[in-house]
Amino acid sequence: MGSLTPDFRFGNFVASIVWLVLVVLALFTVLILPIIFFSLFYVPLPIVDGQVLTPYLFFSMMVDPSRTLPIVQFFIHTDIFRAAIFPGFAFAALIAAVTIFVERKLLAKMQLRVGPLYAGKVEGIFQLLADGLKLLTKEIIVPSGADKPIFWLAPIMFVSTAAAVVALIPVASGWVVADVDVGLIAAFAILGFFPLIALLFSWASNSKYPFIGGLRALHQLIAFEIPFFLSALPVVILSSSLNLSDIARSQNIFWNIFILPINAFVFFISSLAELERIPFDLPEAESEIVAGWLTETTGMIYGLIQLGSYLKLYALAGLFVILFLGGWYGPQIFPQELIPGAHESNLPLLQMLALDGLYNPITVNSIFWFLVKTIVVIFLMLIIRGINPRIRIDILLHTGWYKLIVLTFINLFVVLMLIYGGIIGPEGVISIR
Amino acid sequence: MSATFNLAGETATQFLPILYLFGFGILAGVPSIVLSRLLMTRRRYNPVKFLPMECGQVPSGEGRSHFMMQYYSYILMFVVFDVMSIFLYAWGVTFFSIPREATLPMIGFLGVMFAAMGYALFLAGRKGIW
After folding, report:
1. C-alpha pair distances (Å), A244 with each of A232, A283, A328, A340, A379
2. Chain A neighbours among B 57-116 (CB < 8 Å)?
């Protein structure tokens, strides 16, 4: 506890926080509430259970628990809920947070350390919260001569772009934020922005190590983008669709990894390179160029970039599951009724868990299997970080151009031969759909 | 398969939820940086603190300088073959709905791509010309 400044007073700190809360509350009352009510005049209000949902009805429904069910049912099928909470931002951020903690503990155990231990008494489970608070209260240092607008904007763009990739990942049939016809191409297109953001940020921070890191990110993109594209091409051939939900639905009998093992391997390697993780973490090689393109990041800027890169990790693991591991298909393990006799009960909470409430055995089962597969893929990525050294940049370029591209084409030709030989395909011996 | 023939506007609306999540990223990012600006400790101005990080040395020269990264050949190849590999998707997605003979031109396309790529990789491996 020797790091507090001499003029630090706890009372002043508390007072500043109280002032902040008061100012926010005042602004909310004076500005935001009137804006909400004015805009409600012009918004067509939704109809729930045969009644127009005015704010007064909303609050009276919230007070009476037995009338909450229709409004909750209405709410979970809106775009806003999907984007903000379930397959969208909050869900992905939760997985990202859990991944950061599990990664630290797992790597520590693999390297005979203990990892985070003190925050939260039990194995340091509140370490992430403590780190978040620490990052929030640390000073953000903008280096002299930096390009200020880009320097402030790049971390926010990084998080937003990572969230935009998450929007394309379906977790169950119909449970996706953006059900786009060309979902796979859209995911590739958005993923192509990340090296650009890294390069912009490194250029903006007016320092040498970040600049080298940004250029390395660019080289990594040019080495691994083409294997990344081409390894998904046979998947598109087999499912005749670019929509990610349709690609997952086409694997309800066979997982693509059984037909395309080499391509799954190449996709996995390329997605590690896309994520800038060990063994491809050249853009942020901490033993060579300080922290690469993250050298000049401090405080919350570093926190946002970290959040964005773990959102990207979830998105790419989800993409791997959708493309190769059969999406959300798995044996039905959830029963028809979660709690027996729930729908006859009068308790509102039990009614919500009943079949006609919020519980749907097929959807819950799909989400469960999707999560299990995604967690397995994330674990594979974490374990690879624990056991591999970093590779040199010329070896990286050589691997990408000379080996991975050839491997993708080998598997493409194997698939073409199997289709024309009448073994797989719609009218083949083994019907894949 | 969802509707194949869409109006241009409908196709554009499909992409709207991506923008929603992009907006949520901004909604999460901007307040956290603003809150951090409000909460963070601010010490007195110190000219050394705002210098670019160079491991404790006083930085010399420009931060943004010319840096020879080498491997231009790969960048030239990327510009060509990235576009070519995207063209393959148009063939892949219609694979089962076009006649079998239509694959032959695609094999020719792949042959051109392979020949060019092989020659480019051969040149990229040569020393003394880059």
Report:
1. 11, 30, 12, 36, 23
2. 59, 63-65, 67, 69, 71, 74-75, 77-78, 81-82, 85-86, 88-89, 92-97, 100, 103, 110, 114
Domains of chain B: 8-47+67-125 (1.20.58)
Cα separation of A143 and A150, whole Å? 13
- When pLDDT is averaged across residues A51-60 and rounded to a whole number, the result is 77
Indicate which of A133, A181, A295, A427 best probes the interface with B, i.e. most B CBs within 10 Å of its own CB.
A181
Dump pLDDT digits (tens) for A183-233.
Answer: 899 999 999 899 889 889 988 888 888 888 888 888 888 888 888 988 999
The count of residues in chain B is 130
Q: What ipTM describes this predicted complex?
A: 0.85
Q: Are A390 and A278 in contact (CB under 8 A)?
A: yes
- Residue B12's CB is within 10 A of a number of other CB atoms, namely 10
For residue A230 the two structure tokens come to 């081409």
Record: contact A246-B21, CB cut-off 8 A: no
* For residue A357, pLDDT beyond 80: no
Residue A410: other Cβ atoms inside 10 A: 13
- Which of A18, A79, A159, A161 is most worth mutating to test chain B (most B CB atoms within 10 A of its CB)? A159
Chain B residues closer than 8 Å to A93 by CB: 28
Q: Which of B23, B29, B85 sits opposite A226 (nearest CB)?
A: B85
Mean pLDDT over A266-285 rounds to 87
Amino acid at A396: L
